[in-house]
Amino acid sequence: MKDRSELPTPRTEGEILSSSNLKAFTFSDLKNATKNFRPDSLLGEGGFGHVYKGWIDEHTLAPSRPGSGMVVAVKKLKPEGFQGHKEWLTEVDYLGQLHHKNLVKLIGYCSDGDSRLLVYEFMPKGSLENHLFRRGAAPLSWAIRLKVAIGAARGLSFLHDAENRVIYRDFKASNILLDSEFNAKLSDFGLAKAGPTGDKTHVSTQVMGTHGYAAPEYIATGRLSAKADVYSFGVVLLELLTGRRALDKSKPDIEQNLVDWAKPHLGDKRRLYRIMDTKLGGQYPKKGAHAIANIALQCICSDAKMRPRMSQVLEELEQLQDSKNGSASPQVDIRRASQTVAKSPLRVQPSPRRSLGAASHCQDIVPHKCTRREVILQESM
């Protein structure tokens, strides 16, 4: 695995493609691998294009007969789609060099004429979005939800924990893919951005992302930091807790934005149960739910500086899992969190373990008003 601080920053397409160890497929290869992109091979679609199921030889990576060899997912981009050539190249650049068990593996790419395709490892359980929101989907247990949150946190922490950090910029349920054991992997790096260097706190960039998940300060100013990813992670934690989408226009106006609707309940032990996903059937540890609510509350803090780092979030989630999936959580006291104001997201406990601190200063956030920048964001699908 390469040290992220040593990653080159190629300036041309040729340098990016030549610097990766990815397989360069021809369009004909991928036509054969996907049965000519037939409808029965279609796995999903979105603003970027379509994703098809395909088969390649495990050793040579040559296309193989359907049902034999290694299963792969082939993303075929629309030439005029939201994720255009620039995003395709960004994904090749990052996933061609960064390798981690919680990042989806990019096997190869195709740049044949006007065709732009990407070939990934196949994730048999699909996206977290489908498991949480698709009609008829089997409900996820509390243990699986916590496992998914930890896997996704590991992926984000890996990206952030480097001298030359990477900001994911589009963390959402549909970009969290699950393998056969419900291990979470981050996918779709088309909007990823190199983080600030030196003593800089942010990078300025065009606002892109998805409504409901994007951090308010990023929408308002275009200033991007790793704390924007932390905010998005907090929104996904809320989706795992409530079973509701980040933005749901089918709900009454006051309930459409998940953050605004859920926030008043997160710091109140007596009110939290009102927003818990009914699909859990009450089968969740109450202390564990309170702990996750506290973590989410800090992640969605309106003051980006007061949000914890992903490494802190990951440590807290792992401690929760160690305590029998949250059946006990001595490190997090939700009552104290609703009554005290911390000067830092990190509070040192008497025990040797660290814990995220109080979050009451983040509870009463006035919903931000839309700006012209916000129209660039995708609608949540």
From TrEMBL:
InterPro entries: Kinase-like_dom_sf (IPR011009), Plant_Ser_Thr_Prot_Kinase (IPR050823), Prot_kinase_dom (IPR000719), Protein_kinase_ATP_BS (IPR017441), Ser-Thr/Tyr_kinase_cat_dom (IPR001245), Ser/Thr_kinase_AS (IPR008271). Residues 320-330 have a biased composition (Polar residues). ATP binds at residue 76. Its EC number is 2.7.11.1. It holds the Pfam family PK_Tyr_Ser-Thr. It comes from the Eukaryota. Residues 37-320 form the Protein kinase domain. GO terms for molecular function: ATP binding; protein serine/threonine kinase activity. GO terms for biological process: defense response. Residues 318-360 are annotated as: Disordered. The keyword Hydrolase does not apply. The keyword ATP-binding applies. Keywords: ATP-binding, Kinase, Nucleotide-binding, Plant defense, Serine/threonine-protein kinase, Transferase. PANTHER family: OS01G0588500 PROTEIN-RELATED. Belongs to the protein kinase superfamily. This is non-specific serine/threonine protein kinase. It comes from Eleusine coracana subsp. coracana. The lineage of its organism: Eukaryota, Viridiplantae, Streptophyta, Embryophyta, Tracheophyta.
